[in-house]
């Protein structure tokens, strides 16, 4: 009975202690111990394991300035979803089952971090704010506010971040651990804002409170990198040496020693032999086996500073072939090769291909990848047109030869390719180390290369070429000579391939890539239609290349060469007026004879917009010209519609003289032709339409002009047209089409855009690139506008150049059209920014993601604005 009585008392006491309602000493002790060492402890362990995995999976790129914080890896977070869920459940239990314990707020903090890592940012913010208001632990409150600050920085919420920094600066009693995290987070804040001095200052303070030697080593390395970039070599040297303390990873030690030597003596040393020996020693060190590409790359950069471009390129090519542990280094190597070929040799073709190679090694989301992609846009176009001119020109020359001459050219080409393969095989042939047993072998080496066939790459390449010449392209297999292989009944015996087999197959594969005479002959055009296609492509490429060289690459003389070739070889080209105009501009830049093109334009194309432009060189241009010409176009069209044809013509003529080259020019010219149809002869009207169709680039306007022309054609002329293109349209229908096209009321059915109310939308502000500097506060003003009016919507702001006339700022995302329209309305009424031109706000618009992709391709903002006014207002 005593035993049972004692057991009952223990159970009773335990039951009383388990209650989360009774706030007694026994209850509190029980819940504190259980919450801490069961639920909270296990939740924290699981979360820490995931954080550690994120850290371990991240590959540091020591060739670039290291980030203050290692970024969250969404893939690692997703792969650990089960572990994070378990951590969430345990933290929740610590709160629900142990409400009177001292670990409730700490468990809430874990839940906030879990939401943060899993991108539930609103929930994370609310949790952190709750802890700050309700927790009685100053340390936990400070820790929470520091994490909240990092979240604000991630989200770009500058005002909230500034408020949090100001609040923490007034707090007293912040622990050393929290001060360390605070200064690191401040460094992150300055890093995101591009404040280099702020980052250095914050990290310098963080080191004072750092208790982890490895973390201190990493911060010292970041500071060394930043001081080196600022040219403060003495400070950089000290910090690189401090980065070697704390048993850092070998790769960081390697880079710290390498860069320390650079700032200390390599860059300043005049003993080049000593410097090169230093790099040679690093290269030969077995510990650097996986860093050889870095060593050679750094040596190439050193040789570049000595002005030895040839050796620099040679070392960069070597570095690209060396083994390495960081693929991004290969990307930087190819980027450097591209830079040298662009700056030193103006070799745009090589630059493009090196940049292509760089992108294969750099993550597409990396800022450097985005920079390379942007740089490559004009280079891609250059290479496309340059190579098309080369290929088509060669094919047209071959087409003029006799069949025997064509065959001889093909055979000589194949022979030159065979010789190239032989040279490459010789270059790759590496003499093998000799052995005492070599003298006993029947096939001992008697020359510079091995005489044993399967050890001699040159012999194998020659054998493959000879085989192909004799027997053609045949698969490597047994019994290939037999004419009745299909009658063999026995299954082939498959053996494991040897190294010799592999080498032989590689040699055969290279040779099989050689073209055949028949294949080359088939590529030569042999019909008028094929030759016409090649000439059309050449015409386009000469023009586009000339335009690209003038505007984008600033190669004026090369631009003139291509454009002169265009007007000389293709005198009937529809691009001729614009080519004359570009030649006029180019010769003007070179102080050459630009007036000859003024004369040609006036003689050959008196009514072209380019003629108006050269006759009025001081006319206004840019967005203001476009806005004013738009207003005048509307007046001219209204005059035409009301039958005041001469008044309409006068307005058009004055507009073209004052604003000769705007996006409205082609519309104004077509409207002028419509006036001719009402006031001049039918023949003159037809002549002007035909000239307009030949010289206009806007396909929508060309189609409209064709529809106007068809009622003027005879039955025989209509019969020559494609039946699908015949449109029965009288003049009244044409006028209605013109009104729909240019009067601002375009039917939705005729637009390439589609209205989708439920689609994700963005808001777009378009500005002339020349005015970007005047609106330098725009991004900050937008952030402030969003914080005040759309604080919960997590709007993001970005910018890009759409074309030469428009830089665009993008605000996103809006979940549907209605929310986008709400933003549009509030923006029009309330948004203000110093220096923002008056016409920018009215010209802004909302657009769905799908329609934005169409707009990016067409780059025709006016076409979309017409659709926007019809669909959204």
Description:
With 873 residues, this protein is mainly α. Among the domains are: 406-427 and 455-472 and 500-526, no CATH class; 528-605, Alpha Horseshoe (Serine Threonine Protein Phosphatase 5, Tetratricopeptide repeat); 623-743, Serine Threonine Protein Phosphatase 5, Tetratricopeptide repeat; 750-872, Alpha-Beta Plaits. It is built from 40 helices and four strands. Strand 2 (796-801) and strand 3 (807-814) form a beta hairpin. Helix 2 (25-57) runs antiparallel to helix 4 (81-96), helix 5 runs parallel beside helix 7 and helix 12 packs antiparallel against helix 13 (250-266). Residues 1-19 form the signal peptide.
Topology:
Blueprint (H helix, E strand, L loop, with lengths): L1 H17 L6 H33 L16 H6 L1 H16 L7 H14 L3 H14 L3 H18 L2 H12 L6 H18 L2 H14 L3 H17 L3 H11 L6 H17 L5 H13 L7 H14 L3 H13 L5 H17 L4 H12 L7 H33 L3 H26 L28 H15 L27 H14 L4 H7 L4 H24 L4 H14 L6 H14 L5 H10 L4 H7 L7 H19 L3 H14 L6 H15 L2 H14 L3 H11 L5 H6 L10 H12 L18 E7 L10 H12 L6 E6 L5 E8 L2 H14 L9 H4 L1 E4 H10 L2 H12 L1
Antiparallel strand pairs: 1-3, 1-4, 2-3
Helix pairs in contact: 2-4, 2-5, 4-5, 5-6, 5-7, 6-7, 7-8, 7-9, 9-10, 10-11, 11-12, 12-13, 14-15, 15-16, 16-17, 17-18, 18-19, 19-24, 20-21, 21-22, 24-25, 25-26, 26-27, 26-28, 29-30, 29-31, 30-31, 31-32, 32-33, 33-35
Q: Which short descriptors sum up this protein?
A:
873 residues; mainly alpha; Serine Threonine Protein Phosphatase 5, Tetratricopeptide repeat; four-stranded antiparallel sheet; 4 strands
């Amino acid at each position: 009975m005593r035993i049972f009585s004692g057991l009952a008392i223990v159970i009773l006491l335990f039951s009383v202690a388990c209650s989360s309602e009774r706030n007694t000493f026994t209850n509190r002790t029980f819940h504190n111990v259980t919450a801490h060492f069961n639920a909270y402890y296990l939740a924290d362990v699981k979360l820490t394991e995931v954080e550690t995995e994120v850290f371990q999976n991240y590959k540091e790129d020591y060739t670039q300035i290291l980030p203050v914080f290692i970024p969250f890896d969404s893939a690692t977070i997703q792969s650990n979803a089960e572990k994070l869920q378990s951590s969430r459940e345990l933290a929740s239990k610590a709160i629900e089952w142990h409400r009177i314990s001292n670990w409730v707020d700490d468990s809430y903090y874990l839940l906030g971090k879990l939401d943060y890592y899993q991108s539930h940012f609103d929930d994370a913010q609310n949790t952190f704010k709750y802890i700050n208001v309700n927790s009685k632990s100053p340390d936990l409150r400070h820790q929470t506010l520091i994490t909240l600050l990092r979240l604000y920085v991630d989200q770009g919420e500058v005002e909230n971040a500034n408020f949090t920094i100001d609040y923490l600066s007034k707090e007293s009693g912040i622990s050393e651990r929290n001060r360390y995290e605070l200064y690191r987070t401040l460094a992150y804040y300055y890093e995101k804002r591009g404040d280099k001095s702020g980052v250095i200052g914050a990290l310098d303070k963080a080191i004072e409170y750092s208790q982890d030697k490895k973390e201190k080593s990493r911060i010292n390395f970041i500071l060394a990198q930043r001081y080196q970039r600022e040219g403060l070599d003495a400070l950089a040297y000290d910090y690189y040496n401090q980065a070697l303390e704390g048993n850092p990873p070998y790769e960081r030690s390697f880079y710290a020693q390498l860069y320390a030597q650079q700032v200390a003596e390599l860059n300043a040393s005049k003993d080049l032999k000593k410097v090169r020996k230093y790099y040679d020693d690093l290269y030969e060190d077995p510990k650097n086996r996986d860093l050889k590409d870095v060593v050679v790359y750094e040596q190439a950069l050193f040789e570049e500073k000595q002005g030895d471009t040839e050796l620099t390129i040679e070392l960069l090519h070597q570095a690209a072939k060396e083994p390495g542990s960081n693929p991004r280094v290969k990307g930087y190597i190819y980027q450097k090769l591209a830079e040298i070929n662009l700056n030193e040799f103006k070799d745009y073709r090589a630059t493009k291909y090196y940049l292509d190679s760089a992108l294969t090694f750099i993550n597409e989301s990396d800022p450097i990848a985005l920079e390379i992609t942007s740089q490559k846009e004009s280079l891609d176009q250059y290479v496309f047109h340059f190579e098309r001119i080369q290929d088509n020109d060669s094919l047209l020359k071959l087409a003029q030869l006799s069949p025997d001459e064509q065959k001889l050219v093909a055979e000589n080409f194949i022979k030159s390719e065979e010789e190239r393969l032989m040279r490459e095989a010789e270059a790759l042939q590496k003499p093998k180390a000799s052995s005492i047993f070599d003298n006993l072998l029947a096939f001992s080496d008697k020359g510079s290369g091995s005489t044993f066939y399967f050890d001699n790459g040159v012999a194998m390449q020659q054998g493959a070429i000879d085989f192909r010449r004799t027997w053609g392209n045949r698969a490597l297999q047994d019994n290939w000579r037999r004419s009745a292989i299909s009658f063999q009944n026995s299954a082939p015996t498959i053996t494991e391939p040897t190294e010799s087999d592999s080498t032989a197959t590689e040699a055969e594969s290279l040779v099989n890539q050689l073209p055949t005479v028949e294949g080359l002959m088939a590529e030569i055009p042999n019909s008028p239609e094929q030759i016409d296609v090649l000439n059309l492509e050449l015409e386009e490429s000469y023009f586009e290349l000339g335009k690209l060289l003038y505007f984008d690459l600033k190669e004026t003389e090369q631009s003139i060469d291509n454009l002169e070739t265009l007007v000389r070889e293709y005198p009937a080209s529809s691009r001729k007026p614009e080519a004359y105009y570009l030649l006029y501009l180019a010769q003007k830049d070179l102080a050459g004879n630009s007036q000859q093109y003024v004369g040609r334009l006036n003689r050959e194309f008196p009514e072209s917009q380019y003629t108006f432009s050269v006759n009025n060189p001081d006319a206004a241009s840019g967005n203001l010209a476009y806005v004013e010409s738009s207003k005048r176009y509307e007046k001219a069209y209204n005059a035409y519609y009301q039958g005041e044809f001469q008044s309409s013509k006068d307005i058009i003529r004055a507009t073209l003289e004052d604003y000769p080259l705007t996006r409205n020019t082609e519309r104004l010219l077509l409207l002028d032709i419509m006036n001719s149809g009402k006031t001049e002869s039918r023949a003159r009207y037809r002549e002007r339409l035909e000239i307009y169709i030949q010289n206009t680039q806007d396909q929508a306007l060309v189609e409209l002009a064709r529809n106007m022309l068809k009622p003027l054609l005879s039955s025989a002329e209509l019969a020559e047209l494609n039946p699908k293109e015949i449109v029965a349209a009288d003049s009244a229908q044409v006028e209605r089409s013109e009104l729909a096209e240019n009067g601002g009321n375009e039917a939705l059915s005729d637009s390439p855009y589609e209205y989708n109310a439920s689609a994700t939308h963005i808001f777009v502000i378009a500005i002339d690139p020349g005015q970007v500097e005047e609106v330098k506060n725009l991004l900050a003003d937008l952030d402030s506008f969003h914080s005040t009016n759309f604080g919960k919507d997590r709007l993001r702001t970005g910018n890009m150049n759409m074309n030469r006339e428009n830089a665009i700022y993008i605000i996103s995302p809006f979940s549907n059209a209605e929310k986008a329209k709400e933003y549009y309305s509030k923006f029009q009424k309330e948004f203000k920014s110093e220096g923002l031109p008056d016409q920018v706000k009215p010209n802004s618009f909302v657009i769905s993601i799908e329609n934005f992709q169409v707009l990016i391709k067409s780059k025709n903002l006016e076409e979309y604005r017409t659709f926007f006014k019809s669909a959204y207002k």
